[in-house]
Amino acid sequence: MYMTSSSVGESDQNVSKKNAGYYAAELVRDGMVVGLGTGSTVFYAMERLAEKIRDGMNIVGIPTSYQAECRAREYGIPLATLHDYTELDIAIDGADQIDPKGFLIKGRGAAQTQERCVAAASRLFVVVADVSKQTPSLSAPVPVEVIPSAASLAAKMLSAMGGTPVVREGVKKDGPVITDNGNWIIDCTFAEIPDPLALETDINNIPGVLSCGIFAEFTEKSKIVIGKKESAEIMLF
Ligand SMILES: O=C[C@H](O)[C@H](O)[C@H](O)COP(=O)(O)O
């Protein structure tokens, strides 16, 4: 169990995210190379890592998106890339849904491709999420990053797999969302996902697809940290 002191006015969900993020930061040791995931929950881990760096800890962070990179720079976390390190000690990342077996849906921030690369390179994959992310089964639309010229082909193949694909459009921009890698995102809804690992493999094998948001392949090296209002706990593993 790990508890943080919360500021007055913080929402219960933010306090839960902070508890998860701070718990994960305590798993990081001096000298480690640390994958820095994307999203609001990981930012709390970065916040705590920044405190530890100010207290003398040395780490190097590998960001998974421009968003993560910008936040890490604000916090003064030294950065490198997967060109510099192909083996990481630990990666800390968020999730949008977590099922009872520890399978995930990620990618609301459209960052799942770089997140997958960093997760693959890491010895330990630490997932941080508030309790609202736990679901009985994976049901959220699966984000699929695809090169623009292959989007229609990918959509057709996703439909053949039983999905309902929709190209994600920007909130602050007309037209498709453009990922950090210059691609599009298809959000694909499935009525059910009985075998997440098989669907992850099938989608990732579609020509032109870089990566989908189902993360089932890293479960064996995962630690899932669930943040609640009062504390954070490890789920299952
Ligand atoms: O692309 C985005 C990532 O997969 C995030 O880790 C995920 O969306 C969770 O973000 P948050 O911690 O803000 O809920």
Question: Which descriptors would you attach to this protein?
Answer:
single chain; 237 residues; alpha/beta; Rossmann fold; Alpha-Beta Plaits; 2 domains; six-stranded mixed sheet; 29% helix; globular; binds ribose-5-phosphate
Highest CATH level, the class of the largest domain:
Alpha Beta
CATH fold description of the largest domain: Rossmann fold
SS-derived structural category: alpha/beta
Sheet bearing the most strands, described? Answer: 6 strands, mixed
- Small molecules bound in the structure, each named once: ribose-5-phosphate
* Separation of the first and last Cα atoms: 14 Å
Give the % helix: 25-40%
- Percent in strands: 25-35%
Enumerate how many helices there are, as a single number.
6
Neighbour order of strands in the largest sheet: 2-1-3-6-12-13
Order of helices and strands: HEHEHEEEHEEHEEHEEEE
Poorly predicted tracts of residues? none
- How confident overall, as mean pLDDT? 95
By DSSP, the count of extended strands is 13
Outline, from the CA principal axes?
Answer: globular
Active site: 115
EC number: 5.3.1.6
InterPro entries: NagB/RpiA_transferase-like, Ribose5P_isomerase_typA_subgr, Ribose5P_isomerase_type_A
Subunit structure: Homotetramer. Homodimer.
